[in-house]
Amino acid sequence: MRKSRFLVATLAVISAGVLSLPLMSCNSEVSFTTAKLSEVTMARSIDSSTLKPVQVTDTFSIDTPEIFLSAKFSNAPSETEITAEWIYVEGEVEGMTDFLIDTVSVEVSGTDYLYFSMPMPDTGWPRGQYAVKLYIDGKAAETATFTVQ
Predict the structure, then answer these.
(1) pLDDT per residue as tens digits for the range 87-100
(2) From the candidate CATH numbers 2.60.40.10, 3.40.190.150, 1.10.3210.10, 3.40.50.300, the one assigned to the domain spanning 36-148
(3) CB–CB of 95/136 below 8 Å?
(4) What is the pTM of this model?
(5) Per-residue pLDDT tens for 97-148?
(6) DSSP secondary structure letters along 91-110
(7) Domain assignments of the chain as residue spans, ordered by start
(8) Torsion over CA of 27, 32, 38 and 42, rounded to 10 degrees?
């Protein structure tokens, strides 16, 4: 009987300790969103009324005036923040890899399309590989890649 009580007491202490670990490690706010991104597409232009992509491609020339990314967001609570990081991954610029070109954020809600764009630099686009990383409320969501040649 004594061993049995000791075993029950030991299991209770271990269980209490294990169950409290998640509570002790949560020292910051927990966030959850229902927002989702889909149809992430690179394009040469955007339909101004629907914000859907026009001339879809993932390959651009060095003299492309502006490069667009279009995406559909769904079930976004009000004040959901979508962020795009434009990155030069690698290419003709020696010694430059994973270079952050620009970061842009917009607030959205509901379900609709959005777009981000990057105008051509004064000297043209450096040839190489690029990425646009998308975040929902600061959490990585999608990545689109494209090439300039």
Answers:
(1) 999 999 999 999 99
(2) 2.60.40.10
(3) no
(4) 0.77
(5) 999 999 999 999 999 999 999 999 999 999 999 999 999 999 999 999 999 9
(6) ESSTT--SEEEEEEEEEEEE
(7) 36-148
(8) -40
